User: Which sequence fits this backbone?
C-alpha cells in the first residue's frame, strides 16, 4: 500500500467493512505514513459531516403510495410468456441437438440437405435461447465439435487451403450477422443479462448456421482436420471475439448486468 | 428480493419500504426537484418489477437497483439537454465537470449566515457540486457503494469514478474550509483517529 493508493481511494476505503483486506492494509499503512494519516482523518471528518447532514427530504406518502400502486397494478404472477419461450426453445435445441449425437454414435451417413436444415433450425433456436438464457453458450463449442466428429471421416491433412479459407470466412460472416443485430439492439436502455455470454452464444449460433450451410457447399467435409480447423475453430473464434467485445463495450457504456 | 422475484407481494412491500426512500434520494440529489424524483422513483420500480425475473439470487441488490435508477437518470439528463440516446456517462461527466450545481456556498461565511448550522452548510456545499460529481458522492457516502460498484452502476470505469470522487471530495473540503474560515462561531468537526475502525 502506498501513499497514492490511500489518498486516491479514501472514499472507497471508508465504505468498506473493517475486515476488508484493502481497508486493513490502508489502516496499517497509516501507522507509518503521516501524510496518509492526516488525509484519512480529514476525509473521515468530511464523511462524518456528510453523514450528519444528508439533507434530503423523504418522499411524500402520496408519491410512495402511487409508486406501490403502479407496481401492484402490474400484478405479481411470474411472466408466463417468457417461461414458455424458454421451454419451447430448450425442447427444440434438445431434440435437434440429439441429431449429431446419434449420428456420431451410429456413424451413420446423413443426407447433406437434411443435416443442413436440422443444423440451421438448431442454430436459430440456440440463438433465441442465448438471449433469454445466455448460459447455453457453453454448449455451442461441444455441439460444433460433435458435428465435425459426426461427418469427418479421416484426419487428412492434404485439404485445399484456399477453399478452406472460404469456409472460414463464410462461418465468420454467418457469426457476424446475429452478433451485429445483438449489438445494435443493445444500444437502447433494454439490455440482456450477461451480455458477454449472450453475444458469445449468438455468435456461436450464427457460426453453427454457417457450418450447416457448409454441409451443402463444402467438398472437404469428410476431412476431420479440415472440419476442426475451418469449421469448429471459427465457432470458437467468433464466440471469443463477440464475448470479449460485449464485455469491453458493457464496461464502457452499460450498467450492471 | 428473491421472494419478490418469485411473486411474493409482501416481500415487495417490505423491499419497497426499505429502498424506495433511497431511490428517491438518489434522484433528488441529482435533479433537486421533488416531482422529478417522484416520477423517476416510480419508473425505477416499474422497471425493477418488469425485470425482476432476471435477478440472480445471491447477487447484491443495491448495485443492480441503482443501475436501473442510473439508467433512468441518464435518460432524464439526455431528455433535458436533447442529447442523442447514445451519449454516455463519461461524455456527460466531461461536459458537466466544470458546471456548478443549483446552489452556491460561497456566501455561507458572510455575516447574515453565521447562524446557519453545520448541516445546512454541508448540504449547500454538496448541492454546489456538478451533478456528475454529486452522484458519485451520493452513491459512495450515502449508499456505501465502493468505486468499483459505482462504476458498474453508472456504466463507466473505476478509474473515472476515482477521479471524479477525488475532485468532488477535494472541492467539498475546500468549500467547507472556506466557509469555516469566514465563520469562527462554528467549530470544525474533528474525528482524528476515530474512523480507522468504524465508518458510517
Assistant:
Amino acid at each position: 500500500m502506498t501513499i497514492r493508493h490511500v489518498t486516491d481511494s479514501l472514499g472507497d476505503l471508508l465504505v468498506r467493512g473493517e475486515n476488508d483486506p484493502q481497508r486493513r492494509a490502508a489502516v496499517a499503512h497509516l501507522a507509518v505514513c503521516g501524510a496518509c494519516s492526516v488525509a484519512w482523518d480529514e476525509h473521515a471528518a468530511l464523511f462524518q459531516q456528510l453523514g450528519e447532514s444528508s439533507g434530503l427530504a423523504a418522499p411524500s406518502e402520496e408519491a410512495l403510495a402511487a409508486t406501490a400502486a403502479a407496481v401492484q397494478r402490474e400484478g405479481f404472477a411470474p411472466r408466463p410468456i417468457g417461461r414458455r419461450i424458454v421451454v419451447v426453445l430448450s425442447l427444440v435445441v434438445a431434440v435437434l441437438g440429439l441429431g449429431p449425437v446419434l449420428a456420431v454414435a451410429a456413424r451413420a451417413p446423413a443426407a447433406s440437405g437434411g443435416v443442413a436444415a436440422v443444423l440451421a433450425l438448431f442454430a436459430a433456436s440456440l440463438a433465441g435461447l442465448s438471449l433469454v438464457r445466455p448460459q447455453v453458450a457453453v454448449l455451442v463449442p461441444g455441439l460444433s465439435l460433435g458435428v465435425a466428429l459426426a461427418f469427418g471421416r479421416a484426419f487428412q491433412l492434404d485439404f485445399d487451403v484456399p477453399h478452406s479459407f472460404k469456409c472460414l470466412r463464410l462461418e465468420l460472416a454467418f457469426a457476424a450477422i446475429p452478433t451485429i443485430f445483438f449489438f445494435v439492439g443493445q444500444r437502447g436502455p433494454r439490455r440482456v443479462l450477461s451480455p458477454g455470454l449472450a453475444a458469445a452464444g449468438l455468435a456461436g449460433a450464427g457460426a453453427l448456421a454457417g457450418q450447416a450451410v457448409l454441409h451443402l457447399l463444402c467438398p472437404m467435409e469428410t476431412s476431420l482436420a479440415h472440419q476442426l480447423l475451418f469449421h469448429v475453430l471459427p465457432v470458437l473464434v467468433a464466440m471469443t471475439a463477440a464475448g470479449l467485445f460485449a464485455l469491453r463495450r458493457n464496461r464502457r457504456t452499460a450498467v450492471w448486468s | 428480493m428473491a421472494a419478490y422475484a418469485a411473486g411474493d407481494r409482501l416481500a415487495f412491500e417490505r423491499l419497497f419500504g426499505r429502498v424506495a426512500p433511497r431511490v428517491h434520494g438518489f434522484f433528488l440529489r441529482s435533479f433537486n426537484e421533488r416531482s422529478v424524483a417522484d416520477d423517476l422513483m416510480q419508473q425505477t420500480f416499474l422497471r425493477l418489477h418488469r425485470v425482476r425475473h432476471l435477478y440472480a439470487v445471491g447477487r447484491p441488490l443495491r448495485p443492480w437497483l441503482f443501475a436501473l435508477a442510473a439508467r433512468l437518470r441518464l435518460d432524464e439528463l439526455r431528455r433535458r439537454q436533447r442529447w442523442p440516446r447514445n451519449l454516455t456517462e463519461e461524455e456527460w461527466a466531461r461536459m458537466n465537470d466544470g458546471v456548478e450545481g443549483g446552489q452556491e456556498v460561497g456566501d455561507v461565511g458572510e455575516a447574515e449566515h453565521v447562524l446557519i448550522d453545520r448541516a445546512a452548510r454541508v448540504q449547500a456545499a454538496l448541492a454546489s457540486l456538478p451533478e456528475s460529481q454529486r452522484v458519485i458522492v451520493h452513491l459512495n457516502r450515502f449508499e456505501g457503494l465502493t468505486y468499483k460498484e459505482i462504476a458498474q452502476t453508472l456504466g463507466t470505469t473505476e478509474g473515472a469514478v476515482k477521479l471524479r470522487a477525488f475532485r468532488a471530495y477535494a472541492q467539498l473540503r475546500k468549500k467547507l474550509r472556506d466557509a469555516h474560515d469566514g465563520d469562527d462561531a462554528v467549530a470544525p468537526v474533528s474525528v482524528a483517529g476515530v474512523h480507522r475502525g468504524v465508518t458510517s
